[in-house]
C-alpha cells in the first residue's frame, strides 16, 4: 500500500480486501471492556479539519486513541488559518513538529494530494471538496459486506446529488474495485459533467429513474445527502420536488423490500430526514446507518494501522 | 534462511533441505502427554481455557481439547489470541494483517488459561500474548504449552508443557506442519543451518 491514502483509486483490490479484513478484527476490539491496543504507541496523528464533521473526525480520533497514538484535533476556525495563514504554511508548521500522520478535510478538491507533497507525514484524505472521501467508501463497503457478504457481483445503487458528492466518487471506485455492479441515480441537473465517459470506461450505469432501479431489486441502496450548503445553483426547483423524484420515501421503501427483501439501505450522514430519506427508511430494519458509524472506527483503525505500524512507515 | 534450489516444494518429505525431527505419531504422542500433564497439573479440567496463538497454535489448542475430552469427558473452552497488535517488532517488519482473537463465551476472568503455540523461540510472542491477555481479563493463572521448544530465549519466559525440546542453532529454521492446517501429515522438521 501507498504511504498516503488520498484516493480510492490508489487502492488495489488486494489493498481493499486487506483493509477490510483488518477492520473486521478491529471491530472485535470495540466490544471489549478495555478498548486499547499498544500498536501505535509513540505515534502522533493530527486531525486537521477545515470543514465541519462529527463522525469522521471523532472516529479518526477514537481510532487513533484506541491504538495508543496521540491524536490532536485542529479545526480551521480555531487555528492560524483564520488569521490568514496559507494551507501550505499551516501543514508545514504541523509537519515540523514531527507528526506521523495528518488526517485532513478541506473544502478544496485536491487539497489532500497537494498537502502530501509538502510534508513528510502520511496524509489521509478525510474529504477534499467534491472530490473524494476514501475512508467513507471503505466503511460503506465493510458495512454492506457485514450484512450481505462479498460485494463481488452485488448490485448497488447510489442515489442523489452526484455533482457535489465526494462520498459517491470514492464509493463508486471502491465498489467497482470489489467487483460490484454500480448504478448511479440522479436528476440530470445533479449529474456531474463528464460522468458519461467515466461511466462508460468503468462500467457504471446511469439513470434518472429511481423507481425503475428500486423495482429491479438492488442489493444495496446508498442515499446521498442533499448538500444544502452547496445548493445555491438552482439544481432543483423545490425540496418537495426533489423528494418526489429522488427521495427514499415510505412507498419506495416498500417497493424496494417487495423487489428484494434482503436489500439494505445506507446513508453516509448527516441525514436530512424527509428530504432525501424518510424517517421510515432511515429507521427501518434494512437501514445500516448506525452500523456505518460503528464500522467507521474499525475501518479507520485499520487504515491507521496499515499506514503507520509497519516497517518503512514514517518515524 | 536459504533453501536449496529444488523443484520439490518445501515441507515435502523429499525436500532435501530439512530433516524430520517429529513424525506424525511423535506429534500425536507429544500432544497426548501434554493433555495429560495439563489435567494432572490442574487436578482435572475445571476452570481450564485453552487459547491458541494463530495460526498453528489454534489448531493445536483444538487438538488438546479433543484429547482432554477423550480422557476426562469434559468440554474445555477453546479460543484464539492474536498478538499482532502487541508485537514489539512491528516497526521492523512489513505490516502484517492481524488474525482472529476469539474468547470463549465464559471469558477468561478467574480461569486457568493455557496458551498454546507451536514453537517457543525468543519468547517475544508469549510476552505479547501476556499483554494481549491482560486487556481481555484477569485469569487465575496463565500456563504455556508448546509443541517444540527450540531454545534461544530473549526474555525470562519458559513453557510449562513441552512436546519436544529441540536444540537448534539460530541459522536453522523449525518448520511445523499440521494436518488440519497445512494439509498432509503432521511433521516437524529442521531446515537450513549447517549439516549436523
Summarize the structure.
The complex is a heterodimer of chains A (315) and B (196). Chain A is α/β, with parallel strands linked by helices and 315 residues long.
Q: Can you offer a commentary on this structure?
A:
Helices cover 40% and strands 15% of the residues of chain A. With 315 residues, chain A is of the alpha/beta class. In chain A, helix 1 (13-29) packs across helix 5, helix 1 crosses helix 12 and helix 5 (134-148) packs across helix 12 (289-308). With 196 residues, chain B is α/β, with parallel strands linked by helices. Chain B has a five-stranded parallel beta sheet with strand order 3-2-4-5-6, with helices on both faces. Chain B has a three-stranded antiparallel beta sheet with strand order 1-8-7. In chain B, helix 1 crosses helix 2 (56-72). The model of chain B is unreliable at 1-6 (pLDDT under 50). The chains are: A alpha/beta (315), B alpha/beta (196). At the A-B interface, helix 1 of A face helix 3 of B.
CATH class of the domain at 24-88 and 98-169 in chain B: Alpha Beta
At CATH's second level, what is the architecture of the domain at 24-88 and 98-169 in chain B? 3-Layer(aba) Sandwich
**CATH H level, superfamily name of the largest domain in chain A:** Aspartate/ornithine carbamoyltransferase
Largest interface: pair, residues per side: A-B, 23 and 19 residues
Q: Count all strands of chain B and give the number.
A: 8
Determine the strand fraction of chain B and express it as a percent band. 15-25%
Q: What's the arrangement of strands in the largest beta sheet of chain B?
A: 3-2-4-5-6
Q: How many domains is the backbone of chain A divided into?
A: 2
Shape of chain A: globular
CATH class of the largest domain in chain A: Alpha Beta
Percentage of β-strand residues of chain A: 5-15%
Return Rg of chain B in Å: 17 Å
Described by the principal axes of the CA atoms, the overall outline of chain B is globular
Helix content of chain A: 40-55%
Which range best describes the helical content of chain B: under 10%, 10-25%, 25-40%, 40-55%, 55-70% or over 70%? 25-40%
Amino acid at each position: 500500500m501507498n504511504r498516503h491514502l488520498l484516493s480510492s483509486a490508489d487502492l488495489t483490490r488486494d489493498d481493499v480486501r486487506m483493509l477490510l479484513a483488518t477492520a473486521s478484527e478491529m471491530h472485535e476490539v470495540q466490544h471489549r471492556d478495555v478498548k486499547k491496543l499498544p500498536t501505535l504507541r509513540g505515534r502522533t496523528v493530527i486531525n486537521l479539519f477545515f470543514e465541519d464533521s462529527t463522525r469522521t473526525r471523532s472516529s479518526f480520533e477514537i481510532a487513533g486513541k484506541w491504538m495508543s497514538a496521540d491524536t490532536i484535533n485542529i479545526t480551521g476556525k480555531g487555528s492560524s488559518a483564520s488569521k490568514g495563514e496559507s494551507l501550505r504554511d499551516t501543514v508545514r508548521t504541523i509537519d515540523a513538529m514531527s507528526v506521523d500522520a495528518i488526517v485532513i478535510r478541506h473544502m478544496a478538491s485536491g487539497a489532500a494530494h497537494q498537502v502530501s507533497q509538502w510534508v513528510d507525514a502520511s496524509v489521509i484524505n478525510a474529504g477534499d471538496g467534491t472530490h473524494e472521501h476514501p475512508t467513507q467508501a471503505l466503511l460503506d463497503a465493510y458495512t454492506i459486506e457485514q450484512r450481505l457478504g462479498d460485494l463481488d457481483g452485488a448490485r448497488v445503487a447510489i442515489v442523489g446529488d452526484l455533482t457535489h458528492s465526494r462520498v459517491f466518487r470514492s464509493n463508486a471506485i471502491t465498489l467497482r474495485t470489489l467487483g460490484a455492479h454500480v448504478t448511479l441515480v440522479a436528476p440530470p441537473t445533479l449529474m456531474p459533467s463528464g460522468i458519461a465517459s467515466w461511466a462508460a470506461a468503468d462500467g457504471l450505469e446511469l439513470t434518472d429513474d429511481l423507481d425503475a432501479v428500486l423495482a429491479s431489486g438492488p442489493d444495496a441502496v446508498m442515499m446521498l445527502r442533499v448538500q444544502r450548503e452547496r445548493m445555491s445553483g438552482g439544481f432543483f426547483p423545490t425540496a418537495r420536488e426533489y423528494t418526489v423524484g429522488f427521495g427514499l420515501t415510505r412507498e419506495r421503501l416498500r417497493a424496494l423490500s417487495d423487489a428484494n427483501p434482503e436489500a439494505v439501505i445506507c446513508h453516509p450522514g448527516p441525514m436530512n430526514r424527509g428530504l432525501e430519506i424518510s424517517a421510515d427508511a432511515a429507521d427501518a430494519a434494512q437501514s445500516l446507518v448506525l452500523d456505518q458509524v460503528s464500522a467507521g472506527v474499525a475501518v479507520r483503525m485499520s487504515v491507521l494501522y496499515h499506514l503507520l505500524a509497519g516497517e518503512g512507515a514514517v518515524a | 534462511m536459504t533453501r536449496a534450489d529444488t523443484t520439490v516444494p518445501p515441507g515435502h518429505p523429499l525436500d532435501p533441505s530439512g530433516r524430520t525431527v517429529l513424525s506424525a505419531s511423535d506429534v500425536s504422542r507429544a500432544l497426548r502427554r501434554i493433555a495429560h500433564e495439563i489435567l494432572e497439573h490442574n487436578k482435572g479440567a475445571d476452570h481450564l481455557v485453552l487459547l491458541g496463538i494463530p495460526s498453528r497454535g489454534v489448531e493445536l489448542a483444538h487438538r488438546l481439547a479433543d484429547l482432554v475430552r477423550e480422557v476426562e469427558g469434559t468440554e474445555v473452552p477453546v479460543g484464539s489470541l492474536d498478538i499482532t497488535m502487541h508485537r514489539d517488532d512491528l516497526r521492523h517488519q512489513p505490516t502484517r494483517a492481524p488474525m482472529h482473537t476469539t474468547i470463549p463465551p465464559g471469558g477468561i476472568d478467574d480461569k486457568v488459561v493455557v496458551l498454546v503455540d507451536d514453537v517457543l523461540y525468543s519468547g517475544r510472542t508469549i510476552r505479547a500474548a501476556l499483554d494481549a491477555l491482560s486487556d481481555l481479563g484477569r485469569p487465575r493463572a496463565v500456563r504455556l504449552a508448546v509443541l517444540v521448544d527450540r531454545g534461544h530465549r530473549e526474555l525470562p519466559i519458559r513453557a510449562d508443557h513441552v512436546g519436544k525440546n529441540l536444540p537448534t542453532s539460530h541459522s536453522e529454521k523449525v518448520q511445523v506442519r499440521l494436518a488440519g492446517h497445512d494439509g498432509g501429515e503432521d511433521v516437524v522438521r529442521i531446515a537450513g543451518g549447517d549439516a549436523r
